[in-house]
What we know:
By secondary structure, the protein is α/β, with parallel strands linked by helices. It has one domain: Flavodoxin domain (Rossmann fold, 3-Layer(aba) Sandwich). The chain contains five helices and nine strands. It has helices at 15-30, 53-64, 81-90, 114-125, 149-168; strands at residues 2-7, 33-38, 67-75, 78-79, 98-105, 128-129, 134-137, 141-142, 145-146. The strands form two sheets. Strands 1, 2, 3, 4, 5, 6 and 7 form a seven-stranded mixed sheet that branches. The chain has a two-stranded antiparallel ribbon with strand order 8-9. Helix 1 packs across helix 5 (149-168). It starts with a strand and ends with a helix. The protein binds flavin mononucleotide. Flavin mononucleotide (FMN) is lined by residues 9, 11, 14-17, 73-77, 104-107, 110.
Amino acid sequence: xxTLIISSSLSKNSKSFILCNSVAxxxxxxxxxxxxxxxxxxxxxxxxxxxxxxxERLSMKIKEADNIIIGMGVHCYSLNDSLKTILDTSFVNAxxxxxxxxxxxxxxxxxxSTMHLTQICMNEWRMIQLPRVVYATAKDFNNDAIKSVELxxxxxxxxxxxxxxxxxxxx
Length: 171
Ligand SMILES: Cc1cc2nc3c(=O)[nH]c(=O)nc-3n(C[C@H](O)[C@H](O)[C@H](O)COP(=O)(O)O)c2cc1C
């Protein structure tokens, strides 16, 4: 199972990137082949601007992937601007693919923010989402490390279910 994990945050201290790494480790230990895209390495261009070579490469990787996991940070109760740019410019090849969401937020009250991403992926590309989101807040981390047992458990459950369903959906 080839899983593309897209970490969309441009923050140098990104917490959602930590979630992406952690899920990649879990999935790889089960036999998946995960590739992590760190958006901080991609010169992102807005829609209608000439796209960068790195963005073209991302589109190709999305096309080749069996399934996709998206890491997002919550901005203003929604997805962040870099993720919106990636969706608008590079997701045309994501049609019908199985996907999952890993989300980092400042507080506990923004958990419905991931629904905007769900709506976009379902309505625009008929993507099918794992019905479990990993949602973490600042309280779950100690600097760059995951400190909460609950978050570790949620990452394990997410990875187990993503691997189980993702494998079954392979041709
Ligand atoms: C512009 C901006 C808006 C934010 N809006 C929210 C918000 O609405 N709700 C929330 O819980 N946290 C909010 N936050 C906090 C981020 O979600 C939090 O820092 C999270 O860790 C970001 O993910 P990242 O570390 O992967 O970039 C906001 C942060 C920024 C910079």
